[in-house]
Every structure is written in structure tokens, then in C-alpha cells.
């Protein structure tokens, strides 16, 4: 008997997960493996260049983008647990290298192979339910009422409109609740949050109020940037819900 | 030209977010307009809506790509219909042309229907300085003229005002009893304006579209004031940015479907006027003279830059303002010039100079809601990124005190991120410095420069003890519950 060849995914974990939230990366790997995906982690990866690009430092961003192109050059599928880093690689690299035919060709090639984590699970792997596995001490506890915040770049640049919801709806122990005004930006916007904190905070206050009113015990999203922002307010204000990356919710939902 | 206070964006927006009345006015108008816009799209179906957007975009791309050709066609046909076309390179010239027309016709009183270009030119002040009485007749414009303010929204100029504020303004300025009854307030304005329409020697209008093949000026309104301004006085002066031209009446159709739905969710506005030249011999009424002033005032700079050209496709519906989370918090005045919100953050730097409007392209989270709402599919976030690039790496004239810090940080970030080893060292140093100050793994309010701008309201995680890369190397690589070697 021959087993079908497993899907192989190369994880680009993003610098924010690598440096600040490594546990999210661990959950990503666990969920992918549970879905039958063989995961590898290309060496030398750091940042895709998005923070620089969004701030206008295009020539500095190109350096990091070129490195990233090199590191991911021969990978079949690149999986990114972030809509904004994913959008950078899929959409904005094409702008970044618009005037360099050779690099543009490589950027186009990458843009065909790069997937956001939930998009990959649903569209490529066809995976929607988490196999039942008992929860263990080192795995985050299961969430019950989960509200999903669609991060802006995932929704409007990568156009991932329903994969996260489908995964959450299929996950055992997860009861998805609607987040009011879900598609409103949380106010993070990278450097925006520190350049114009007074505006960012107003947006954040509305997002936090929406999450509170949803009755969720967990707010989830596919981007740690947004979740760092929202989570920063949740922990400062000691609000009664937790903030988790969707990989953590899916990882912890088994059982 | 209208006064430019774009440099005041930060203090102005700081004041705006604390203004409870403004917030109330914005919230009501923003959700109201956007809600009806979404309903209007559902009614025609999102698929049909996309087809319309694509058609409109094609028309704009084509016209703006051949602008000289269509402007010449327009001039020919306006002239053939008995009108006069004037081209103004800047605000000063445009104001001089209108003043000259007013003098030549011995004009004492002007009625105006809504024109954002006239706001851009600061035309009212120019005319008033020549002792000409100018009366705005669009209700919103009338309100802000009474209040001596500028518009805060492209289609709803007095959007920043609550009903109570307008009631108080009417009581103070018009000597009428205080009333918050909308119908009564509209009646008060109608009575005040009726005589002005009859007295006016000159009517000034904007233009929603200029149709090249017929030489027609098209305006759509809900109040009928545009029709009165363009037909009752002896002289009609139409003002339009040079991007307003479209080739044909057939092309107009899709825009008449898109504009009202995008602006207010209406299927059609109450009035649609097409003005083609002055009155003809057989006409019963209409002006004796028709002048069309086509204004550049910086637009050719936008036209010349391929990355910014699509900003000229804008039909000024205001949909991007109504969905913008930043506009919805700070209102239109904070942007510091006539054109606010997402599209204003591109048009304003284009017209007044990026050097004095650097906050505008930066004051966005790039959430993209504006692009989705735009009836002509203008990619606003991409142009904001382009302007940010010009600010960060562009000419010396855009640099200021903060520029060196910014580029130093950017270079430092790029250097660290170019080396996994350096990044690892950086994380360890960062953790050693920050961890002692952290509680529960996060940093609370901190005095560290820059960091404090985050932690003033949000806790900040400190670097993890082990990076994901290390965890992968030590624990995850080579393992897999599927039993397969990764």
C-alpha cells in the first residue's frame, strides 16, 4: 500500500512571531502537521520588509525582500501565519520590484506560491476539521465563545474572506460568535500606532468595545500585529477576554 | 487659494478626537451614508456594481490618458454652443478670470451652487473683496458660510455640525426663533435664499461632469439650487477641475448610476441639470452668457506622475470618507485643506505640495476600505505608499527634523533584519533590558522614547526568551505526528 504524498509547506513564521510570540509558531506547526502537512522551516528567514515598505523606506525594504526571495526561492508552498506579511509577499513585492525584470519575475513566482495559514489549510489542503486529540498541559486551553476579527490586509489585499471562519466553525469546542463591525480596522497600521496614537487609540477603543459586546471569551485573528495591538489594550484594561492567534485556537480546540 | 493648514494635522486631529459633538455628527453621517450605499449596491447586485465600476474606470482611464484631446473637443463644443471656455493654470488666475467676468457684467450679487473647486480657489473671499455679495445656496454650504467655516466633507459640507449647532447658528445669524425641526429649518433657509436667487446677477456652479462631445456641464443636486443658479441670473460661470471631462453622453450614463449611490445611497438625485451654452433665441429663460472656467491648479502634476494619475479619476462622491476609520475619527477639518479623507490625502499633497502635507499620506492604517468603496476603483492605499516613499526617500525639500531619525531607524532595522545572528543578539539584549521592567511578560507605561507612544495605552510584549527559530531547531525539526520526516 502506498500512502499519498503529503503536502509540503515551508513556514515563513514572520519576525513578530519569531521574536515575540514563538508559541504561535509552535501552534501553526502543530495544526499543519495534524492536517497531514509536512512542515519545513527555511533557514535564515527574518522579516519580509513590510514595516519598512509601509513607512516609505523602499530601498531598505528591497534588501529584506530580496533576502526573502532568496530564502523562499525553491519552495513549493510558502505558508505565512499573517495576512499582512502574506500580502506583502503576494501583492506588494510586485510593486517593490516593478522596475527590475529579473526580481519581478521571481516576485511573481513567489506570489503564486505564498499562502496565508488558514487559506492554505482550506484552499490547498482541503482541511476543515481538527481531529480530536486530548488537550495537554502545554497546549493552550480550548476557547469556547470565539469572535473573529478579519485583519485588513488578509481581507482586502489577500482577499481571504471565509477560510478562517470555516476553520473556526468546524473546530470542536469552538462556538463562533459574531463580532460587531468586524471589518473595521483595529487601528494598528504598523508605525501608524505610534505616529498617531491619538487616532489609533480611538479605533482600538471601538474594536475592544465590539469584542466585549460580542460576549466572546476569546478574540482571534490571523495576524499577530493586530492582536498585539488589541491584546495590549486587553491586558492594560484587564478586560474579560483573551486574545489568541487563530492557530492557537485551532491547536487548543482539539478535544 | 484657500488657506492651507495641513501642517497642523496632528494638533487638529488631537483636538478633533476629543470633540464629542463632532464625533456624534461623524458617526451618524458616516454610518448613515455608508449603510445606504451598501443597500444600493445590494439592490443592483454586487456583480452588476462591479461591472459598472469597471466601465467607469475604463472611461476615466481613457479620458485622463487623452485629456488634451477631450479638453480641446470640449472647448470646441462649448464655444459652438455660444459659451466661452477659460483655462486657468492656478487659483490666482482662475479667481482673476471670474472677477473679470463679474466686472465686465457689473455684477453686484452672486448665487453659488456647490463647488469644491471654488472652495479650493478661495473664490468667495476674492469676490467679497471686490464688494460683491456672494451667497451659497446649497443648504450645507449655506450653513458653513453663515458659520464662516470650510466644508468638512465632499458632498455634505456641514457634516461636522449637529442639528442643535445648526439651529443655534440660524437663531444667531438669521434672527429666527430657535428650532431643531428639520422641515422648519429647511423652510427658514429657503425663505432666506429665495430672494437671493431672484436678485443675483451671476450664478456660479461647479460641475460633476463635463461632456466633451456636446460641450455640456452636468450637475446633480437634491435641492434644485443648482438649476436656479444656472438659469435665473444673467451670467452663469461654471467652475471645474480639468479632470471632470468625459467623452460622451453615453459615458455619462454609468456615472449617473454610480455617483448618487456611492454618495448617499440614492438611485438618482432629485435634480440633474445639463447646461449647454447660454440661452438660445428660442429659449424662454437662461443666462445671457455662459463661461466655463477649467482649472489646473496643480492637477497637471498629478497627471504627469503615472503613480498618482488615477487620483484624477475621482468623482468626489465621498464614499471613501464615509468608510475611512481615520476620517470618521478626526473629521474633515483636521486634514487642513479643502479635500479631506483618503482621496484628499493624495489630492491635497498633489495640489498644495507634499512638503507641507506630509502627515496626510502617513495618517492611514492602509486598511484598504477606501479602495473597496471607490466607485472608480481608485487604489488609494497604493498611492499613499507612493507618497510615503517620496517623503522618506525623496528630495531634500521633504526632509525635516524627524527625517534623520526615521531613516536611521529604518537603516538600523534593515541591518538587524538582514542578519539572523544580529537579530538573535538584538532580541537577547532587548529582553535583558526590558524584562526587569515587565510585569506578566508585558511592559506597562514606559518612559522610553518612541516605546512610550505605544505603551501610553497599550501593554507591549517583551522579546521571548527563545525565538521560534530556536524552538524549531531544538524541538520541532525532524518531528511530525504524521510519522514523516520533515
Would you give an account of this structure?
The complex is a heterodimer of chains A (255) and B (486). With 255 residues, chain A is α/β, with parallel strands linked by helices. Chain A folds into two domains: 8-123, no CATH class; 138-253, AF0625-like (Rossmann fold, 3-Layer(aba) Sandwich). Chain A is built from 13 helices and eight strands. Chain A has helices at residues 15-19, 22-34, 50-54, 58-71, 83-96, 101-113, 117-125, 152-156, 163-170, 192-195, 197-214, 224-236, 246-253, and strands at residues 8-11, 38-40, 78-80, 114-116, 145-148, 175-177, 218-221, 242-245. In chain A, helix 12 links the parallel strand 7 and strand 8. The mean pLDDT of chain A is 93. By secondary structure, chain B is α/β, with parallel strands linked by helices. Among the domains of chain B are: 21-301, Rossmann fold (3-Layer(aba) Sandwich); 420-476, no CATH class. Chain B is built from 23 helices and twelve strands. Chain B has helices at residues 9-17, 20-44, 46-65, 67-80, 91-104, 116-121, 123-129, 139-146, 163-174, 182-199, 225-231, 249-263, 299-304, 319-323, 327-330, 341-352, 359-362, 369-373, 380-393, 401-417, 420-434, 451-455, 468-476, and strands at 84-88, 109-112, 133-136, 202-205, 209-211, 216-221, 235-241, 245-246, 271-275, 289-295, 442-443, 460-461. In chain B, the strands form three sheets. Chain B has a six-stranded parallel β-sheet, with helices on both faces. In chain B, a hairpin with a 4-residue loop joins strand 5 and strand 6 (216-221). In chain B, helix 2 (20-44) crosses helix 3 and helix 16 packs across helix 19. The longest helix of chain B is centred in the N-terminal third of the chain and has 25 residues, at 20-44. Chain B is elongated, with a radius of gyration of 27 Å. The termini of chain B are far apart. Mean pLDDT of chain B is 95; it is low at 480-486. Classes of the chains: A alpha/beta (255), B alpha/beta (486). Chains A and B meet through helix 1, helix 2, strand 2, helix 3 and helix 4 of A and helix 1, helix 18, helix 19, helix 20 and helix 21 of B.
Amino acid at each position: 500500500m502506498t500512502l499519498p504524498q503529503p503536502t509540503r509547506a515551508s513556514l515563513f513564521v514572520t519576525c513578530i512571531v519569531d521574536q515575540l510570540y514563538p508559541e504561535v509558531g509552535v501552534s501553526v506547526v502543530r495544526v499543519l502537521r495534524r492536517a497531514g502537512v509536512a512542515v519545513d522551516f527555511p533557514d535564515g528567514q527574518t522579516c519580509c520588509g513590510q514595516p519598512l515598505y509601509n513607512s516609505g523606506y523602499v530601498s531598505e525594504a528591497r534588501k529584506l525582500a530580496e533576502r526573502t526571495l532568496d530564502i523562499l526561492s525553491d519552495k513549493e508552498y510558502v505558508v505565512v501565519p499573517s495576512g499582512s506579511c502574506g500580502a506583502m509577499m503576494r501583492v506588494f513585492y510586485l510593486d517593490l520590484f516593478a522596475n527590475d525584470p529579473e526580481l519581478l519575475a521571481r516576485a511573481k513566482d513567489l506570489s503564486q506560491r505564498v499562502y496565508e495559514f488558514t487559506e492554505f489549510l482550506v484552499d490547498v489542503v482541503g482541511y476543515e476539521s481538527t481531529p480530536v486529540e486530548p488537550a495537554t498541559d502545554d497546549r493552550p486551553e480550548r476557547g469556547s465563545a470565539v469572535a473573529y476579527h478579519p485583519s485588513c490586509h488578509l481581507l482586502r489585499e489577500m482577499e481571504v474572506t471565509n477560510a478562517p471562519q470555516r476553520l473556526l466553525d468546524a473546530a470542536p469546542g469552538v462556538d463562533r460568535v459574531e463580532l460587531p463591525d468586524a471589518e473595521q480596522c483595529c487601528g494598528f497600521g504598523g508605525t501608524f500606532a505610534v505616529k498617531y496614537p491619538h487616532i489609533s487609540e480611538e479605533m482600538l477603543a471601538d474594536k475592544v468595545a465590539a469584542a466585549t459586546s460580542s460576549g466572546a471569551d476569546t478574540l482571534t485573528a490571523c495576524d499577530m500585529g493586530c492582536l498585539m495591538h488589541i491584546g495590549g489594550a486587553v491586558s492594560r484594561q484587564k478586560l474579560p477576554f483573551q486574545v489568541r492567534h487563530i492557530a492557537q485556537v485551532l491547536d487548543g480546540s482539539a478535544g | 487659494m484657500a488657506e492651507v493648514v495641513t501642517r497642523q494635522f496632528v494638533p487638529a486631529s488631537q483636538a478633533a478626537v476629543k470633540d464629542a459633538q463632532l464625533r456624534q455628527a461623524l458617526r451618524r453621517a458616516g454610518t448613515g451614508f455608508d449603510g445606504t450605499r451598501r443597500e444600493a449596491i445590494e439592490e443592483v447586485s454586487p456583480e452588476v456594481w462591479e461591472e459598472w465600476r469597471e466601465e467607469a474606470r475604463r472611461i476615466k482611464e481613457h479620458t485622463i490618458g487623452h485629456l488634451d484631446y477631450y479638453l480641446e473637443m470640449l472647448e470646441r463644443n462649448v464655444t459652438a454652443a455660444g459659451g466661452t471656455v477659460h483655462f486657468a493654470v492656478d487659483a490666482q488666475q482662475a479667481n482673476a478670470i471670474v472677477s473679470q467676468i463679474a466686472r465686465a457684467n457689473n455684477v453686484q450679487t452672486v448665487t453659488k451652487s456647490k463647488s469644491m473647486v471654488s472652495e479650493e480657489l478661495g473664490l468667495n473671499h476674492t469676490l467679497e473683496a471686490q464688494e460683491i455679495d456672494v451667497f451659497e445656496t446649497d443648504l450645507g454650504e449655506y450653513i458653513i458660510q453663515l458659520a464662516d467655516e470650510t466644508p468638512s466633507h465632499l458632498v455634505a459640507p456641514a457634516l461636522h455640525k449637529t442639528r442643535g449647532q445648526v439651529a443655534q447658528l440660524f437663531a444667531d445669524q438669521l434672527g429666527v426663533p430657535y428650532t431643531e425641526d428639520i422641515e422648519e429649518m429647511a423652510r427658514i433657509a429657503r425663505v432666506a435664499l429665495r430672494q437671493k436667487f431672484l436678485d443675483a446677477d451671476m450664478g456660479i456652479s461647479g460641475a460633476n461632469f463635463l461632456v466633451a462631445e456636446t460641450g455640456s456641464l452636468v450637475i446633480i443636486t437634491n435641492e434644485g439650487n443648482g438649476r436656479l443658479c444656472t438659469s435665473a441670473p444673467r451670467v452663469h460661470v461654471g467652475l471645474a477641475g480639468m479632470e471632470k471631462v468625459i467623452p460622451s453622453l453615453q459615458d455619462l450614463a454609468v456615472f449617473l448610476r454610480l455617483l448618487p449611490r456611492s454618495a448617499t445611497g440614492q438611485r438618482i438625485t432629485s435634480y440633474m441639470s445639463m447646461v449647454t451654452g447660454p440661452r438660445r433665441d428660442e429659449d424662454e429663460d437662461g443666462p445671457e452668457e455662459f463661461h466655463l472656467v477649467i482649472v489646473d491648479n496643480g492637477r497637471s502634476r498629478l497627471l504627469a506622475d503615472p503613480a498618482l494619475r488615477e487620483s484624477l479619476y475621482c468623482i468626489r462622491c465621498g464614499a471613501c470618507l464615509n468608510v475611512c476609520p481615520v476620517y470618521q475619527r478626526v473629521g474633515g477639518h483636521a486634514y487642513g485643506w479643502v479635500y479631506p479623507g483618503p482621496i484628499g490625502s493624495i489630492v491635497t499633497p498633489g495640489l498644495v505640495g507634499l512638503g507641507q502635507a506630509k502627515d496626510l499620506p502617513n495618517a492611514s492604517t492602509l486598511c484598504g476600505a477606501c479602495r473597496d468603496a471607490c466607485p472608480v476603483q481608485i487604489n488609494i492605499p497604493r498611492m499613499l505608499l507612493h507618497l510615503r516613499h517620496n517623503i522618506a526617500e525623496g528630495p531634500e525639500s521633504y526632509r525635516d527634523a524627524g527625517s534623520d531619525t526615521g531613516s536611521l531607524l529604518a537603516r538600523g532595522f534593515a541591518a538587524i533584519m538582514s542578519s539572523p545572528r544580529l537579530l538573535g543578539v538584538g532580541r537577547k539584549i532587548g529582553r535583558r533590558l526590558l524584562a526587569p521592567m515587565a510585569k506578566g511578560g508585558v511592559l506597562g507605561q514606559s518612559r522610553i522614547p518612541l516605546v512610550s507612544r505605544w505603551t501610553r495605552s497599550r501593554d507591549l510584549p517583551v522579546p521571548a526568551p527563545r525565538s521560534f527559530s530556536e524552538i524549531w531547531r531544538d524541538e520541532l525539526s525532524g518531528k511530525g505526528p504524521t510519522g514523516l520526516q520533515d
